[in-house]
Write a sequence for this structure.
């Protein structure tokens, strides 16, 4: 079983369902175009909040100059979770095998209902990537593995993700890198969901995979216009269509957003500048990070690209 290959799905945790990607990010280019990035000014410090794409393609780059300038101004880069090649960590791999894989003799068919099994059978029949490895993956893990497969089918991968881009730049510049969460915490969270919620989560994942193009249209448009309200509408549509998953969304969004906001507030209390790259879905909505910071009366300004046309800006990522 190709556990290490499937482990790479963790680098795109939340990209499809909890932190929606903007796969057509080449948009942010017309004069004065709003970007999915905000400058937050605190009593002492400054935080640039960038809604990120965890997967991408080479033609996403170069990014808008103001994003690169803001990043260079920052003392520290903060990402959502550790991006230092998790597949190389024996500890993380061990934890994943414990939390996300059934022991020998057990299989996913024993833990999901007939409707989910039917959708899963249809999906597996259309893919070779998971055909030999899916049976022992727990539903939550299989959901993210499916997300990885769909991303690759559309020509996207984590190595071209926007957060990965800034991690690479920070490493080259010897800029300090921190995180809002740990990969271990994300694994613990996903492993805590009972079978019935995992079943529903996998079912909704499979149904949405059958209509992927329709689902991402709203997200793409929202990203192109830097429209947080439209992004929230696209994000919450998922929970509205799957109300049984409300407990999952409460943990994956609500509780995590609360904790992330508290950590960002601590950054704002220091005389430093931070560049925080976090999944776009965590910024929007009433419980989103931006709303929570506004409620605490921080000064918040959305960045705009004022100088580069889109046709010129998104060329190949320099090697």
């Amino acid at each position: 079983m190709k556990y290490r290959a499937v482990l790479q799905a963790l680098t795109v945790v939340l990209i499809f369902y909890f932190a929606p990607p903007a796969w057509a990010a080449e948009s942010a280019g017309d004069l004065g175009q709003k970007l999915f990035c905000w400058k937050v000014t605190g009593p002492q410090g400054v935080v640039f909040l960038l809604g990120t794409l965890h997967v991408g393609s080479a033609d996403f780059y170069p990014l808008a100059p103001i994003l690169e300038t803001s990043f260079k101004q920052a003392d520290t880069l903060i990402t959502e979770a550790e991006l230092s090649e998790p597949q190389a960590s024996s500890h993380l791999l061990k934890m994943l095998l414990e939390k996300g894989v059934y022991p020998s003799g057990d299989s996913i068919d024993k833990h999901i209902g007939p409707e989910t099994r039917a959708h899963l059978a249809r999906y597996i029949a259309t893919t070779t990537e998971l055909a030999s490895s899916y049976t022992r993956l727990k539903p939550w893990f299989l959901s993210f593995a499916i997300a990885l497969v769909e991303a690759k089918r559309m020509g996207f991968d984590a190595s071209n993700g926007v957060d990965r881009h800034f991690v690479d730049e920070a490493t080259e510049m010897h800029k300090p890198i921190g995180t809002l969460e740990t990969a271990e915490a994300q694994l613990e969270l996903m492993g805590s969901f009972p079978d019935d919620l995992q079943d529903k989560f996998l079912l909704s994942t499979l149904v949405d995979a059958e209509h992927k193009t329709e689902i991402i249209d709203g997200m793409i448009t929202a990203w192109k216009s830097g429209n947080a309200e439209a992004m929230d509408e696209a994000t919450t549509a998922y929970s509205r269509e799957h109300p049984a998953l409300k407990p999952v969304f409460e943990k994956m969004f609500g509780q995590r957003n609360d904790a992330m906001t508290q950590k960002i507030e601590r950054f704002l209390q220091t005389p430093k500048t931070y560049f925080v790259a976090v999944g776009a879905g965590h910024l929007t909505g009433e419980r989103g990070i931006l709303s929570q910071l506004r409620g605490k009366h921080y000064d918040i300004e959305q960045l705009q690209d004022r100088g580069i046309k889109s046709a010129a800006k998104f060329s190949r990522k320099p090697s």
